[in-house]
């Protein structure tokens, strides 16, 4: 469903390619989502975190799992072992609370309050 939402605007869920891109997303999410937005309790997990879809889908192993741009998970960015093989057939979200964000596997059918889309060839 999140993939479709990005597709409506000619985009796809974001692929996080390296530590710099992850840092930029965390800074933007912290500034916009965490510090300047109020979410109803139904949009937060039990710990008060907001979770936002990114374009990572884990199948059963690192070598059969992919980012939305086609990059295999075992060949891409994996901050501090954030991609967990314990959760097969999961999609990933960034969760944020105050000044910290991390990655978290989620059932792909979960409804989350946000998503991060990217448009190929566009830099803002």
Automatic annotation (TrEMBL):
Gene3D superfamilies, per database record: Mannose-Binding Protein A, subunit A (3.10.100.10)
Superkingdom, taxonomy of origin: Eukaryota
SUPFAM superfamilies: C-type lectin-like (SSF56436)
Domain C-type lectin: 1-108
CDD domains in the cross-refs: CLECT
InterPro entries: C-type_lectin-like, C-type_lectin-like/link_sf, CTDL_fold
Protein name: C-type lectin domain-containing protein
């Amino acid at each position: 469903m999140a993939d479709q939402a990005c597709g409506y605007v000619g985009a796809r869920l974001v692929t996080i390619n390296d530590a710099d891109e992850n840092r930029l997303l965390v800074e933007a999410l912290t500034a916009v989502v965490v510090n300047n937005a109020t979410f109803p309790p139904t949009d937060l997990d039990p710990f008060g975190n907001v979770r936002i879809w990114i374009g990572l889908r884990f199948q059963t192993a690192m070598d059969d799992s992919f980012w939305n741009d086609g990059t295999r998970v075992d060949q891409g960015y994996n901050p501090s072992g954030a991609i967990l093989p314990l959760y097969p057939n999961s999609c990933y979200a960034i969760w944020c609370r105050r000044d910290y964000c991390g990655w978290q596997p989620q059932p792909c059918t979960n409804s989350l309050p946000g998503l991060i889309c990217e448009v190929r060839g566009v830099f803002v």
